Amino acid sequence: MSTLAHTMMTAARSTDSGLAGPGELDRYPFAEGPAADRVGSSVWESAEPELGRVGRRGAGSRGRGLHGQLVQQLGQMIVSGDLGADRPLVPEEIGQRFEVSRTVVRESLRVLEAKGLVSARPNVGTRVRPVSDWNLLDPDIIEWRAFGPQRDSQRRELSELRWTIEPLAARLAAGHGREDVQQRLSDMVEIMGHAMGQGDALTYSRADAEFHSLLIQIAGNRMLEHLSGIVSSALQVSGSPVTGCDRPTEASLGHHGRIADALAAGDGAAAEAAMRQLLTVHPEVERVVPAPREH
C-alpha cells in the first residue's frame, strides 16, 4: 500500500466551523424589545435535554470550543423550525439558557449570520431569517437539514445536485489530471477496497469523499470546484441507499475503479458513463433521480 494510502488509513481529517469576520454583529446593538416579542423560555425549554448546558457537550460537535457547540445547537434549532423566521434572539436569554458567556453568544451569532440564518439590525437586534435567505450550500446547514425534519427533502435535493455535478465533472476531468493526482485517485480506490475488506466503513467513507473531491477539483472548472464541498457533505450525511456511495459494496468499488481508469485514459465519455452507473448502483435511486433520457 502506498504512503498516502497508509496515511489515510490511520489519520482522520477534522472539520471546523470557522468564525465569520469580526464586526458583523458588533456594529449593532442587541435591542431586546418588548418582553412579548422576545424568545420565550418555553422555546428554550423545548430543546432536547442534552442541549441544556453547552459546556457538557462532547467534543464531536462541529467546530471547537463553546462557540462551535453553541453554533451547532442554535443552528439545529433554527433549521428544525424550533426557532422560526423573524424570531428575536436575545443574547442574555441564550447565555442563561445554555450557561455560556455573552462573548460566546456573540461569536456564535456571527457564524450564524455568515450562514444567512440570522440577521442583526440597528435598534432591532438579531432575528432568525427565512429559509429563502439561508446559504443552503453551507456544509453545516446541509448537515442540520439532513438530520432534522427536512431530512428526506435534503437528501433528495443532494442526490439531484450530485446527478447534475458529478457526471459532468467526470467528463471534464478526463485527461486533465496530473500524474500525481491520478495516483491519488488510484490510492483512494485502493484504500476503499482495503477498508471494505476490513469492515472499516469510516475509512471507506473518508477515502470515498476524497475521491469525489479530487475528481471535481481536476475538472478544470472553478465553479464546479467550488461545489466540491457539497459532494463531500452529501456523502457524509447519506442515510439511505440512494446512491452507490452510501455504503461499501463490490459494485460501488468497481465503479470507482472504472472511473479512475477512464480518467487516466483520458476517456471522458467512459468516465461520465461510469459515474452515472455509480450513482444508480441501487435501483431505489431511479425513484429519486430519474436517469436522463436518451435523445
TrEMBL record:
InterPro entries from the UniProt entry: GntR_C (IPR011711), TF_FadR/GntR_C (IPR008920), Tscrpt_reg_HTH_GntR (IPR000524), WH-like_DNA-bd_sf (IPR036388), WH_DNA-bd_sf (IPR036390)
Positions of region (Disordered): 1-24
Pfam family, one: FCD
CDD domains referenced in this protein's UniProt entry, alphabetically: WHTH_GntR
Top-level taxonomic group: Bacteria
SMART domains to which the protein is assigned, alphabetical: FCD, HTH_GNTR
Domain HTH gntR-type stretches: 64-131
Keywords assigned by UniProt, alphabetized: DNA-binding, Transcription, Transcription regulation
PANTHER family: GNTR FAMILY REGULATORY PROTEIN, TRANSCRIPTIONAL REGULATOR, GNTR FAMILY
Protein name, per record: FadR/GntR family transcriptional regulator
Organism: Streptomyces galilaeus
Biological classification of the source: Bacteria, Bacillati, Actinomycetota, Actinomycetes, Kitasatosporales
